[in-house]
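@channel anyone free to eyeball this complex?
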Amino acid sequence: MNKSENMASSAQGRQLRTMDIVNRGLARRYRAERRFKRFGLSAILLSLAFLAVLFISIFANGYTAFQQTFIQLEVFLDPLKIDKEDLGSANYQGLVRESLAKTFPAVKNRADKRKLYGMVSSGASFDLRKFVQKNRHEIGNTIRIWVPADDDVDMLIKGHILRDVPESERRMDDTQIAWVDHFQHQLRIKQEFNMTFFTGGDSREPELAGIWGAVCGSLYTLLVTLCLSFPIGVATAIYLEEFAPTNRWTDVVEVNINNLAAVPSIVFGLLGLAVFLNFFGLPRSAPLVGGLVLTLMTLPTIIIAGRASLKSVPPSIREAALGIGASKTQMVAHHVLPLAMPGMLTGTIIGMAQALGETAPLLMIGMVAFIVDIPGGFTDPATVLPVQIFLWADSPERAFLEKTSAAIMVLLLFLVIMNGLAVVLRKKFERRW
Amino acid sequence: MVRERMSPSNLLLVLLVLTTAGYYLGRRRAFSVVKNDGGPRVLHSRPSYYGALTALWCAVPALVVFCFWLAFESRIITHIVVAALPEEMLTLSGGRLNLLVNDIKNLVEGNIVAGSISPALRAAADHYQELNAISHAALAVIVLVISIGAVLWIQRCISPGLRARNHVETLVKYILIACSTLAIFTTIGIVLSVLYEAIRFFKIVPIHQFLLGLEWSPQMAIRADQVGASGAFGVIPVFMGTLLISAIAMCVSVPVGLMSAIYLCEYADKRFRAVAKPLLEILAGIPTVVYGFFAALIVAPLIRNTGATLGLSVSSESALAAGLVMGIMIIPFVSSLSDDVINAVPQSLRDGALALGSTHSETICRVVLPAALPGIVGGVLLAVSRAIGETMIVVMAAGLSANLTLNPLKTVTTITVQIVTLLVGDQEFDSPKTLAAFALGLLLFVVTLVLNVVALVVVRKYREQYE
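replying in thread with the prediction:
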C-alpha cells in the first residue's frame, strides 16, 4: 500500500467519523429543537391563558351585578301620616316598616324587628316618596310597590350566601332566610335590571351604589387632559421634528421627554400634591387637578407618537411644498400636519386610554374621597372610575365584590372602545409611501 | 355655593368668542383697507393672516394673564384672610392654623365643617368669599380689557404693508417653543417638589438613618407618653420588599416574555403573529387597578389555599401574589421590547449560522440571542423600573408591615405602598410621617431614573451597532 492511498483512506475514515458524530447527535438536536419550539409556543399560550382567566373571573364575579333583587311591599298610605301640602317630609321609612311588620305580625322582639326592617334597602323610603309625589291620588289607599332589597337578601337570592353553611358562619340567620322564603313563596321577590348601578353615585349601601358619579368624574378629568395634552403634545412634536435646530437644548428636551415617559405614575401624583395643591392652592379632589396631573403624564406618549407620525411623512412632500413657494410654517400646516394627523390622533387616543385607567397619581391628589354627589363641574369634588373600583375593592361587603367586577367590566368596555377606535383610525388612514 | 356670572370657565368661553370675532374683524379690516386701491392683491399677506394675527394677539396675552392670576389667586387670598384674623387665632401654631384655614375653605365651599362654627370663622369665610368674588371680577375686567384692547390696536395697525404672515409665523414658532419646554418644567417641578420636602424630612431624620436603618414604622407619637410609637424611618426593609416583589415579577415576565418574543419572531407564521401579538398587547392595556383586584381577590386566596393544603403558612397578603400578577402585567412589555431587538438582528447572522448546519434553536440560542443581548438587557432594565414604580397592584395585594425577609410567602411592603398609605387622607404638612413619603418618592424617582438612563444608553448603543 503506498502512502497516498493510505492518506486517502484515512481521510475518508475521518470524514465518515465526523458524519457519524453529526448523525449520532442529530436526533438529540432535533428533540432539543422541538422542545425549544414548544417552550416558545407554551409561553404565548400561558400569557393568553392568564388573559383568559382574568377576563373570565371578572365576568363570572361581575355579571350578576347588572341584576338587582326587588321586594314587593303592600304599603297603606295613611292620610293621617302624609301631609298633602308637604309630601316631602312625611315619615316614609315608618310606612315601609309598618308594612313589613304587618306582613310578619309574629315578630315582636326588638332585635328581630330591626333585622326585619333591614330586609329592604334604606333607599326604599325614597322610592316610596317618589311614588307618592307622582301619584297623590293614591293617598289613603293600600298600594303595592317594588322596592330594592337589602344587599344581603340580594346575595342570598343570587346564591352567594349559601344556605347549607352553618348558621353561625352565615351573614343571614335562619329566621331571615325564612322571611325571604315567605316573600318568594308569595312571588313578591323579583330580579330586575339594575338601573341604579348606571345612574347612581357612590353609596355605603351596595344596593344603592352606582358608577355614574365616577363616570362623570372620569369624563371631566379626561376632558381637561384632552384639551391640554393634545394641543401641547402636537405643538411639541411639530417643534422638535420640524423646527428645532440640532443643538444641546433640543437634546435636553428630547432626553427629558424620554425620561418622563418612564417615570412611575405615582411620582406625578407627588408633583400634583406638592405643586398644584400645596403651592397653587387648587381645590382637592377636583377633576381640574386630576386632569392637569394626567396631562403631564400622557404628554410624553402623545409627543412620541406625534413625532413618529411626522417622521413617516416623506421629505418629498415637504420639498414640493417649499419648492412652490410655501413658507416653512405653511408647509407644515397645510401639507405635513394633515398627513400626520391620523397617527397623532391614534397616539392621543391611546394616551387618553392610559389616562382613563390611571389610578395612583389621583390617589395622591385626594380623588379617593367618598363622594355621593354627581360632580357638576371641573372644580367639584369627584372621583374617577378606576379609583371607584379601588374603593369598592376595599369594602368588606360581599355585594361590593360583584359591583367592583361590574365596574371593571364597564371600564374595560370604555378602554376597548377607545383602543378599537385607535385601531380603526390607523387602518383607515395609514398610508404607505 | 353661589355660582358667579363671570366664573373663570365662563370667562374662558367669552374669550373664545372674542377670539373668533377678532379673526373675522381682522380679516374684514384687511379687505376694507385695500378696497379702493386694488383689492386683496395689494396686501402683503393673504387676508386670513390678518385675521389670525388679530386672533392670536387677542387670545394669547389674555390667556397668560388668566393662568397666572388663577394660579396665584388662592394663595394671595388665603394670605389676606389669615392676616385679617383676630389676634388670638394668629398666635396658633402652624399646624392648627392650617386646620383653621381648611375649615374656612370648607365653609366657603359649603362643606361640612368639623366642630362648631365660631363667629370669627364665619366672618373669615365671608371675607374669603368676598375677596374671591372681587378677584374674579377684577380678572374678568383685566382679561377683557387686554383682549379687546389688542383687537382694537391690531385693527389700527392693519395696512397693506403690514407683514402679517411673518408676524403670525414668528408668534406660532414662539408658541411651539413654549410648549416644548413644558417637558423640562415638568421634570424640574418633580425634582424640586420632591427634593424640597425630602430635605425638610432629612432635617428631622438624618439621611444616613433613612438610607441605612433596618426598621420602618412611620407612626409618630401624638402625645409624648404614648407607647410604641417612636417612629422609625429606616428604608432598607421597604426597599428590600420592593426588590423582592420586583424579582418575583421578573421571574415570571422575563422567561415568558422572552420566549414569546422568540417564538413570534422566529417561528410563528404571519397569521399566528397577527392574532397573538395584539392579544398579548391587551395585557398591557388593562388598567393596573384591575390587576390589583385580580391579585387581591383571586390570586391571593388561591395561593393561600394551595399553601394550606401543602402545609405551608402563607400570609394572605403574600409577596408571591403581588409579584406573580405584576409579572403577568409586565409580560407584554418585555416581549414587545425583545421583539424589537430580535427583529433588529441582521438576517445575515442567522443565514450564516444555518448554513453551517445548526438547527433553528441553536441559531437562536448561540447567535441571535447573544447578538441581541444588550438590547434585551436594556429592555429588562426598563421592565424592572416599571415593576419598582408600579403602585396599584401592590397597594391592593401587598401588605403594610415592613418585614425584612426574602420569604415570598410572607408579607412585605413596598415604596409605593408606603407613599400611598402615608399620603392618602388628610395630612398635616409638617409631620415627618408625611414628609417621609416625599423622601420615599425621591428614592423611587432616583432609582427609576438611573435604571431608565442606563437602559436607554444600552439600547441606543446596541441600535447603533447594527444600523
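from a first look: Chain B has two domains: 8-180, 232-466.
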